[in-house]
Amino acid sequence: MGTTQLESVPEPKYWHLKTVLAEALDTDFSVGEILPNERDLAARFGVARATLRQALEQLELEGRLQRRRGVGTTVAPPRVGVDVTTSRQDWPGTGNDAWQAAECTVAVPSAAVARLLDTETDEEVHTVRRLRVSHGQPVAAELLYVPSASVPELPAIEAPSGPALARSVLRELQRLDLEGQDRAVELGSAGAVDARELDRLPGAPVLVVTTRYFSEGRTAAVSVATYRADTCRLTFGGDVEINHHGRQRHAS
């Protein structure tokens, strides 16, 4: 058989450099160490700064590097395992929930969220913002969208504010019978608010986990959680882990 056009395409220079840099990170640098500036690194490896920048961006995407405000580019620690199993049947805020309620507002969600909730495009919903912290470091930010129909008794509650209101919404949501949930994971980039809360630069790679919670035959709530792609590793049911080198291994 003949060689396909794709097979004849040479490996991009930045991709080869990424492999060389990854080996250097394993042998010449330690976790948390600050890398030399781009000019010095480009000179060390004999490449253009544009090529170097592409390789560094790829290594950041793979979780090998972190860009930190006021610090520079550092060698990243191993990623934190995050369970995204869809078989768990818990409402947000129950059990061993690792999220911390930060605030709650009432506002019209984006058109995409409104479609998931099956609400009118101009209908206001309760929007709970929560943070997930690991070892003192924020690793994820969540927006939980809850229509008024899911928390009908909330207006009768003495109106708290901020985290107190967020906790009230969560408690009222748990009064419903949870029938199931579905979850989708995709790669994204950090917006201004998420970047600030997660101590990232705007545009940094993130993992976006969207979860729909079902009750009484309808979508009762939608969660959009943004995880730091440089520090989080998604795990599925405790059976498979994806580590920061991109290799799969079975979890114990």
Note down, in words, how this protein is organized.
Keywords: DNA-binding, Transcription, Transcription regulation. With 252 residues, this protein is an alpha+beta fold. The chain is built from six helices and twelve strands. A six-stranded antiparallel sheet has the order 4-5-6-9-8-7.
Shape: elongated
Strand order of the largest sheet: 4-5-6-9-8-7
Number of strands: 12
Q: Catalogue the unreliable spans.
A: 238-252
Provide the gyration radius in Å: 22 Å
Strand content: 25-35%
Number of helical segments with 4 or more residues? 6
Mean pLDDT: 82
Report the helical percentage. 10-25%
- Element string (H = helix, E = strand): HHHEEEEHEEHEHEEEEE
Cα end-to-end separation: 43 Å
Largest sheet: 6 strands, antiparallel
SS content category: alpha+beta
Domain HTH gntR-type: 11-78
Keywords: DNA-binding, Transcription, Transcription regulation
Organism: Streptomyces xantholiticus
Protein name: GntR family transcriptional regulator
Write the layout of secondary structure elements.
Layout: H1 13-28, H2 38-45, H3 49-61, E1 65-68, E2 72-75, E3 80-83, E4 99-107, H4 111-117, E5 125-134, E6 137-146, H5 162-173, E7 180-189, H6 192-197, E8 205-215, E9 218-228, E10 232-236, E11 240-242, E12 248-250
Parallel strand pairs: 3-10
Antiparallel strand pairs: 1-2, 4-5, 5-6, 6-9, 7-8, 8-9, 10-11, 11-12
